[in-house]
Amino acid sequence: MADLEVFLETVGLEEVAEFEGAFCFGRTRSWKDAQGKWHCQQVPRQQWRFLKQQAHPGYLSWEQFLANQERLRQNSQAHGAGDHQAGPAREGPALLQGLALCGKCGRMMTVRYHHRGGRLTPDYVCQKDRVERTQPECQHIPGGSVDEAVGKLLVESVTPLALEVALNVQTDIQARLAEADRLRRQQVQRAEYQADQARVRYLRVDPNNRLVADTLETQWNEQLRILAQAREDYEKQRQLDAAQLTDEQRARILALAADFPRLWGDPKTPDRDRKRMARLLLEDVTLRRDQEIVVQARFRGGATRELRLPPPKRGWERQQTPAHVLAEIDRLLDTRTETQVAQCLNQQGWRSGADRSFTQHLIHRLTQDHGLPSRDARLRARGLLSAEEVAQLIACKPSLVDYWREQGLLQGTRRNEKNEYYYERPTAETVQQIKLRRRMAAAESSA
Prior knowledge:
Layout: H1 2-11, E1 14-17, E2 22-25, E3 28-32, E4 38-42, E5 50-52, H2 62-75, E6 100-102, E7 110-116, E8 119-126, H3 128-133, E9 139-142, H4 144-157, H5 160-175, H6 177-204, H7 210-242, H8 247-265, H9 271-281, E10 282-289, E11 293-299, E12 304-309, H10 315-318, H11 323-332, H12 338-347, H13 360-369, H14 375-381, H15 387-394, H16 401-406, E13 412-414, E14 421-423, H17 428-446
Parallel strand pairs: 6-10
Antiparallel strand pairs: 1-2, 2-5, 3-4, 7-8, 8-9, 10-11, 11-12, 13-14
């Protein structure tokens, strides 16, 4: 290890990290601007000038190091207009957190939560211009209906037929791997030829011509880097192609068609796990709000699906009582008072648009707001008379009309909870009978 460190210091190479057991040269690039200020910039791994793997024992293999770097890249926050990193799955219920793209400007949309209907509901907001330039928000889309639609789409996509087709395609692709391996091998051979040509040109140059020699040496090093990268990519892809699905793995994949919908719909499944499952299937989801909400889902395999959802309801629209409840109120008012209608609806477990229990006041207000005939109007439409009108017919005080109803001579229908009634029109025989009883009662009192 000491000899290796001395060698690194001598040739100017940089260790990538001790735990990978590799070292490289050219991870950064420095330059001086016109004002004489030095700048240093990290370059992608594909542009490093030299990389030697397994130079010494490491804590992790090179494959584990690359997998960790990829996980760190995915979990890092997005920066820049063209960076569409999803970031880590968080605890909130927003299914498309890190996957939602704005259909107008192409930027990633952030999540904003609200309490609606007693539960946490996400909104997807494109607000980069508002944050950085104090301009209006690009888009603001309620996410409750979007998440529900995308969830149904994922459940519909993971079906036995879809998985069987995917496995058959994979089998067909593996049958053509020999041709693909030959083409990739040709790329490595071309890189080897270019490196050999660069080496020959460098060896043939006059050593005294240092400018040309330095240029050719740089070209040779560049070709060697391209060759090393081509060999690494070829070997990695060859190992991936060599992996074959066993019968047990195929059976487990097909079993997902039954397990996935049950797991997705289980209330005990955490929101974070649903997001992770969605990220395994989806690349991103583009949202655009015009006359309706357009949802364009792009799957990992490249397939796309488009959904069109109705625009979200406004606050007052979400609190409107459903039409079937209003129809039931209209039906019950023919035979019941407003208080009795409220009790009947509550017994059936129905709720108002604002998720409240029904009361006499609420039934009365709904009747007025939606233009339904009131209880009094329905009874009057049936030809029933008030106590004052009946009193004129039978020639008595209005306060005595209820007495004759209790005596069974008048037929009344209850109009409210104040013990007030509307009455059937009495017949001539009934009027004569009431008058006869009044005369008899008067004679008895005078005697």
